[in-house]
Design a protein that fits this description.
The protein has helices at residues 21-40, 55-64, 68-85, 99-114, 169-178, 186-197, 226-231, 233-236, 240-244, 251-256, 267-280, 312-319, 321-331, 342-372, 379-382, 386-404, 408-429, 439-463, 468-478, 495-502; strands at 5-14, 43-51, 92-95, 118-128, 133-135, 154-163, 183-184, 203-204, 206-207, 215-216, 219-224, 258-263, 288-292, 295-297, 300-301, 338-339, 375-376, 507-508. It is α/β, with parallel strands linked by helices. The longest helix is centred in the last third of the chain and has 31 residues, at 342-372. Bound molecules: ligand ME8.
């Protein structure tokens, strides 16, 4: 068991509407890395949840004739249901209306105030409610629109509390410059660097013109700005209040290891404002912020207001969670945008999952049943084909680094490349032509069977973080516990030894074999 800590988070999602593919995407990214790290033996904490305060939620509730808490109560369930359907292995689903979170935000505000980092003054400027962002006059696009979402902005003139961001400008800059791994991908890091170099303005962190938020301690005319509230969820989630009371020895180890997965639209909040808040609280900035791209439909960002969203629930109901997880992670390189396209989804499913992976498993199980009555030949009697297995050993060797780079598309490309090698190996060696009564040919046949069986074991290990349900089915065929069985962990460097110990002479596969990934006909 590694003694390393790994903390991974998704953005917390606004509860103004039900989730779409974009929300599923961020959550699947975080889930895959959480599963990989857990499997490798890290102490993992995986946090997701919902962002429930602010003007945008209050307005949506008013338009539905309900109060904001009722809206949050009903919509947060939709996120939870989706995450259950997707097999998301979160450790906590946080809601910003949770009691411990309200306490965290209140004490953080008090602490920053006591440090002299918060002051009261007037604000006059612009506000984009859909993005919950303060904007300066000069940043507006033609016709007074938000530079981020293109929607009309509103004029705001009110008293507000400010957080002294300027004070932390130099520390933020140094942190970004000294930690090339902090912001991923690299081109986003450069964008953030130039933003900070232009000079930071102090950040407005309270509002007085509506009520749906956490009150400012000592001045209840103000509610705390929704982003100040939301970012602090990352501290609540790992027990900030207990930490303050000296009852949480793990807190700092988790907080230092934080990996925040976010969409590119909210990178600045996580890479600039959030570290400043942490500095003010006397804590360290997160380890990594990874900004992924957007899923588009017809070339435009998928979003409710444009009416171009794809519903993940209907896809999962039809095909199960894994094809969607596979498609979203393999289709685009992390950081870039991608168009969600149903034809493409079907093509990838039929070729990668039905033809390549599904077929490799069913033909291997069928051969084992036919030639050895379901026995997996042992390494001593059968031997193994190193020429085939060396590819997968290389993948295992590089996998830690690839995960550190969040290079999921490449990992999946490598795994599916290996699946093709295993299929080709069967085709080329044509075990069905070998004669079991001839000693040499029998030995060769057993070697082929063992090689493909343990190839499948490695494949199941490698795809587990991306397609946990499929991996579980493969392990059931191999007659072994799933990789998320309680207490089990195996780092990539240990898996070969484990495989050798597991599949000895006399080990049998399961009798019942389930067909995976029936082909989709295009008219479906
Ligand atoms: O911004 N493609 O919440 P939000 C890919 N509450 N990802 C998308 C997407 C798309 N078309 N649309 C949304 C908020 N996302 C704040 C966050 S965190 C302290 C507070 C994903 O409901 C993406 O990760 O608008 C984006 O950052 C997140 O959903 C925003 O969700």
């Amino acid at each position: 068991m590694k003694n390393d800590y790994f903390y991974v988070t998704t953005p917390i999602y606004y509860v103004n509407d039900k989730p779409h593919i974009g929300h599923a995407y961020s959550t699947i990214i975080a889930d895959s890395i959480a599963r990989f790290k857990r499997l490798s033996g890290y102490k993992v904490f995986f946090l997701t949840g919902t962002d429930e305060h602010g003007l945008k939620i209050e307005k949506e509730a008013v338009s539905r004739g309900i109060n904001p808490k009722e809206l949050a109560d009903s919509v947060h369930i939709k996120f939870k249901e989706l995450f259950t359907e997707l097999g998301i292995s979160y450790d906590r689903f946080i809601r910003t209306t949770d009691e411990d979170h309200v306490k965290t935000v209140t004490s953080a505000f008090e602490k920053m105030s006591a440090n002299g980092d918060i002051y009261l003054a007037g604000y006059e400027g612009w506000y984009c409610t859909p993005c919950e962002t303060f904007l300066t006059e000069k940043s507006l696009e033609g016709g007074g629109r938000c530079p981020q979402c293109g929607r009309p902005v509103s004029k705001v003139k009110e008293e507000t509390y400010y957080l002294k961001l300027k004070k932390y400008e130099k520390r933020i800059l140094d942190y970004i410059e000294n930690n090339p791994e902090f912001i991923k991908p690299d081109f986003r890091r450069n964008e953030v660097l130039s933003f900070v170099k232009e000079g930071l303005e102090d950040l407005s962190i309270s509002r007085t013109s509506f009520r749906w938020g956490i009150p400012v301690p000592g001045n209840e005319k103000h509610v705390i700005y929704v982003w100040f509230d939301a970012l602090l969820n990352y501290l609540t989630g790992i027990g900030y209040e207990d930490f303050l009371n000296g009852k949480n020895p793990d807190f700092e180890r988790f907080s230092k290891s934080a990996n925040h997965v976010v969409g590119k639209d909210i990178l600045r909040f996580h890479a600039v404002y959030w570290p400043s808040m942490l500095f003010s609280l006397g804590l360290e900035p997160p380890k990594i912020v990874t900004a992924h791209g957007w899923w588009l439909q017809g070339g435009r960002k998928m979003s409710k207001s444009l009416g171009n969203v794809v519903d993940p629930v209907s896809l999962i109901k039809k095909f199960g969670p894994d094809p969607l997880r596979f498609y979203l992670l393999s289709e685009i390189t992390l950081g870039l945008d991608g168009d969600f396209n149903a034809d493409n989804f079907i093509t990838r499913y039929n070729s990668g999952l039905a033809n390549d992976l599904g077929n490799l498993i069913s033909r291997t199980a069928a051969m084992l049943n036919k030639y050895t009555g379901g026995n997996i030949p042992g390494s001593v009697s059968a031997g193994e084909d190193d020429e085939v297995l060396k590819t997968v050993r290389r993948i295992l060797k590089n996998i830690d680094r690839r995960y550190d780079d969040y290079d999921f598309a490449k990992i999946l490309e490598d795994i599916f490349g290996f699946i093709n090698i295993a299929n080709k190996y069967i085709n080329d060696s044509a075990p069905w032509k070998l004669n079991m009564d001839d000693l040499e040919q029998k030995k060769n046949l057993l070697k082929i069977l063992r090689t493909v069986t343990i190839s499948i074991y490695y494949i199941s290990y490698l795809i587990y973080p991306f397609m946990p349900e499929t991996s579980k089915k493969i392990n059931a065929i191999l007659n072994i516990p799933p990789f998320d069985a309680p207490g089990f962990s195996a780092a990539p460097e240990d898996i070969a030894a484990l495989c050798g110990k597991l599949f000895k002479d006399g080990f049998r596969i399961a009798e019942k074999i389930e067909i995976m990934f029936p082909k989709i006909k295009p008219e479906e």
